[in-house]
Amino acid sequence: MKNFIEEVTWRGMLHDVMPGTEEHLMEQMRVAYVGIDPTADSLHIGHLVGVMLLKHFQLSGHKPLALVGGATGMIGDPSGKSNERNLLDEATLRHNQEAIKGQLARFLDFTSAEPNAAELVNNYDWMKEFSFLGFIRDVGKHITVNYMMAKDSVKKRLSGETSEGMSFTEFTYQLVQGYDFLHLYRAKNCTLQMGGSDQWGNITTGTELVRRIESGKAYALTCPLITKADGTKFGKSEGGNIWLDAERTSPYKFYQYWLNTSDVDAEKYIKIFTFLDKETIEKLIAEHNQAPHLRTLQKRLAEEITIMVHSKEDLENAIAASNAFFSPSMDELKKLDEKTFLEVFDGVPQAEISMDDLNAGLDMIAALAAKTNFLASNSDARRELKQNSISLNKEKVGEDKIITKEDLINNQFLLLQKGKKNYYVIKVK
């Protein structure tokens, strides 16, 4: 039996833990669960800390349960949020559950013949037949309103600046989540719930129900909420969430997100989001500190997590796409599909012209000014061309260059450049 608490502690993944948890886990194989929000058909990287906790739990010899909150997803969780969630119907929740299970299977072993094989459970399965009267009789009477009002998640909403207040539906959330723990304690002998630090109040409501109704002992463990050193929100980019689904966030953009982390964050994230051992990580940190400009930590972090979430092939494609931007030749860029090409040049000014313009013979002055407005005027275009500062597809060109279909990248794009850093993309339709 591996010491799970020691493992998550050195990795910086432990925030609060109920006394006695470590001893409890070292006695024999235990069962623990983490709740996962099913409001989308993909996890995003904000979910990954909980998933990594479950994986470390399984690697330590214990049994992990991933609880998809089908019932709680219909209610909304007040923890750390100012507004209620949108409520989902059962069909949508079932679809989301199956998609999420597919992603979790990249981390957790659901198929093992060992006793600690992971399981996916959905609280809608045991909550859907619960009548309101049955719930308030069998569960609600065991927890006082005073106890519920004392929770930070409730106090924050009630004392917040919003005039909306908190609905009764949301107020009951901690009871529903608490009942999940009680049900899993009864049905799966689950004695530990894990989650983010904002979930401590909800988790301990569950331990309290186990104590009051079953006279049992249950435990709670939380991990820190992940932050970024610059104060911006972890897991977000300009385009929104960083998803695990390749259709929502491409492997290239996923790889770039981790590659662009700061030195401080990379040192923290490589412990949390990889399964590299302590000795390997310490060597990487020492190597990185000797030559930070080489970004050793960021590269290894991005490689490990891209392979884990996607595949080695996706990683290789992402690296090739990254290198293509800086390559002095067009060979790498020509290998990229349309989606990846546009992602590589995301944020670069773009213009569209028709194939007719190209067939008529497009001169460089028109390509730079009249047809695209990349440069303010024909005279600006003429001056830059005379100064030899304009490149077409990474080759210097002059005013006499006529652009034809032969110049197209993947039969669709032209890449203009002014100097070394100013790129322009023309899409031909």
Automatic annotation (TrEMBL):
Major enzyme class: ligase
InterPro entries named in the record: aa-tRNA-synth_I_CS (IPR001412), aa-tRNA-synth_Ic (IPR002305), Rossmann-like_a/b/a_fold (IPR014729), S4_RNA-bd_sf (IPR036986), SYY-like_C (IPR054608), Tyr-tRNA-ligase (IPR002307), Tyr-tRNA-ligase_bac-type (IPR024088), Tyr-tRNA-ligase_bac_1 (IPR024107)
Record's keyword annotation contains ATP-binding: yes
Annotated binding of L-tyrosine, by residue: 33, 173, 177
Catalytic reactions of this protein: tRNA(Tyr) + L-tyrosine + ATP = L-tyrosyl-tRNA(Tyr) + AMP + diphosphate + H(+)
Location of the motif 'KMSKS' region: 233-237
UniProt EC number: 6.1.1.1
The name this protein goes by in its record: Tyrosine--tRNA ligase
Protein source organism: Flavobacterium fragile
Protein's gene: tyrS
